[in-house]
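Notes from the 1:1 (GR / supervisor)

We went over the backlog. Supervisor wanted to see one worked example end to end before approving the batch request, so GR pasted a single chain during the call. The sequence is below; no edits were made to it. Supervisor asked that the structure be written out right there so they could see what the output format looks like.
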Amino acid sequence: MGEVAGDAGAAGASPVDGHVHPTRDDAVARALSEGLGGPVGEHAGRHRWWTPVRVLLALTALCFALGMVQKSGCFERTWQDNQAGYAQMCYSDLPYLYTGRGLVERAWPYSDDPAVRERFPEVMEYPVGISYLAYGTSLLTQAVVGWPDLAPRQALATDQLFVDPEVSQEIRWFMVVSALVFAALALLTTWFVAGTHRRRPWDAAMLAASPTLLLTGLINWDLLAVALTAGAVWAWSRDRPVLTGVMVGLGTAAKLYPLFLLGGVLVVCLRQRRYRELAVTIAVAVAAWLVANLPALLTGPEQWRVFWSFNSERGPDLGSLWLVARDALDTEITAHTVNVGSWLFFGAWCLGVLVLGLRAPQTPRLAQLGFLVVVGFLLVNKVYSPQYVLWLLPLAVLARPRWRDQVVWQGAEILYFASVWWYLGGYLAPGGGGDAGFYWVAIVVRVAGELYLTALVVRDVLRPEHDPVRAAPDLGRGSAAPGPPPGGGAGQETTTRSNDVVV
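Structure output shown during the call:
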């Protein structure tokens, strides 16, 4: 494989299966293992059934199940007590959009039927992938409950649907069905992350056991884009530009941010002169995005455009530095100012990532570049919903697989998660009146956590010897490990058994 930064022992790899084990590679994992027998030894054996991937999937399932329990307070009240939801931090968008966007009456999100639009004038304000998923789960829910007669609910005013007893019970089923779909997406994300670096499957434990996944996985439909983003990085690590393009295109049809992975692909391909793969990936991504958008464009072009107009007309919103500036300085900041300022900063940030990637001593890994671009977008975005942490989660785990750094960053995100609900519930307001300054502090702490992880990733790019992944000689040309030449592929590593686990 060429030159490798250190031998297998230095990299924490086991002589049994060649995997890099956290208890030998990560200081925090090694310290925690002391109470459980210490780091993995040289004579450890493989279990016949409990492979790394199966352990990680079980851990993800447990984490997500705990996330469902965390939402049980709101589930019992069918999300009809907002104040209790804020206090218990169990809010979710799904129940409100089920009735508010016509899913309760099986209305196609992009219907241009005047009767539908008169009854439900508010259209799904998300890209088409999320709208399709919400519509599909609503149909599955109604199939589970026996295709209820729509006539009685259509006789009600739309603002009465949420409290109707039959609809209320249906909302619970909608949440259960959605949770199962989201759990499958979380499992798929873990599988992709575990397989991206073949000798480092255990890095995915930082995702599988993530408290941010537990807390935010059920807030909205973001896990669809998260799974597709992780799939794109996995496909690129396996030298599959067509599949990478499909994943990026479909991911962009669910959320805008997976598009930013193409910036990372651009840097890697320019560094390694892989112009054909660059063209193929971009072309396939555009084609996949167009195909995904066609049903919405053909059935309701006006409704399809709502996502774009909604975001352009939005001013400073929850969780953003723009909101801190507006409230702390007591000044008006228009949507136009936010749009121009955000895109100027983000454009400069992307240019900086491009220069960093092209001038780095070695070709950066796609996960590193993708993380840097996405975090730049989130730093100045006009809103930061609590579930946006999921956008960064698989990229952060792959870009900087160190438990200490993940704990620091996710700790900052958890502080923000708690503060946003308490802010909305009015619990952070000073007793004597005035602004909730602690909420501003929480936003700044969240940004500081993201910048902390960003600084470490930038250092790893500039000084590859600090990159934990560089010690594992299993990366393909898409990830650009120091060993293989630019023409080498991930398929060169044929001896690693990624399904083995050491116990």
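Supervisor's comment: Residues 22-29+49-480 form one domain.
Batch request approved.
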